Amino acid sequence: MLRPTLFLLFAGVLQIVSAHFELNYPATRGFDETKEPTFPCGGFDTVQTRTQVPLKNAFVEINSGHTSYSYVVNVVAKNDPATADFSTASELVQVSSGTRSYPQAACLSLNLSNSTSITNGTNATIQVIFNGGDGLLYQCTDVMFVDSAPQFNQSMCVNADGSSTVAASGSSPAVDAKEGKAPSVTVSSSFLLFVIVCVYITV
């Protein structure tokens, strides 16, 4: 029988292996880890309450269970986008992309300056596509872009590695995402399980 300490360590490894991501702010349409691979919004295809998001210095805040991942953030500027709209070049606007090499909180700022379809009062859906190495995962949030959004919580923009979250107006987070980050070490689940077994045998 596994000793309690080793059991907790083993449970922690399983949690890491199954780690996905969550869209924390603006609030996700819904979260179900088993449905996250479902295109385009992780199994939640109905428009929810909209958050007012500023046209400048906008961002989304995610929480990652992976230590290294890539991401893409898209916007569909429609009141009630259909699944097909997330695959249509004329409807889809990419506003962010990049990589991160640390887990937990990450602030992904959005570059809206190159889109003529996103203006004051535009209803839209933001789609976050996340790839931690085990397949594409999806989450969405519904928003209204406005010139001024006093209720938009800028304090939610946090990076768990302590790197700067300040982005110039209209800048893209993809530029910042690879800079100033602590290096990470990717450890396979099989290696971690091997270590646990070795520890158990020797104690």
What do these coordinates show?
The protein is of the alpha+beta class and 203 residues long. The protein has one domain (4-202): Immunoglobulins (Immunoglobulin-like), CATH 2.60.40. It is 16% helix and 29% strand. It is built from three helices and eight strands, in the order H-E-E-E-E-E-E-E-E-H-H. It has helices at 4-17, 173-177, 189-202, and strands at 21-25, 51-54, 59-64, 69-76, 92-100, 104-109, 122-131, 136-146. The strands form two sheets. A five-stranded mixed beta sheet has the order 2-8-7-4-5. Strands 1-3-6 form a three-stranded antiparallel beta sheet. Helix 1 packs antiparallel against helix 3 (189-202). It is globular and about 35 Å long. It starts with a helix and ends with a helix. Keywords: Cell membrane, Glycoprotein, Lipoprotein, Membrane, Signal. Residues 1-19 form the signal peptide. It is a lipid-anchor.
Q: In total, how many beta strands?
A: 8
Low-confidence stretches: 1-17, 167-203
Largest sheet: 5 strands, mixed
Mean pLDDT: 80
The tally of helices reads 3
Question: Approximately what portion of the residues adopt beta-strand conformation?
Answer: 25-35%
Residues in helices, as a percent range: 10-25%
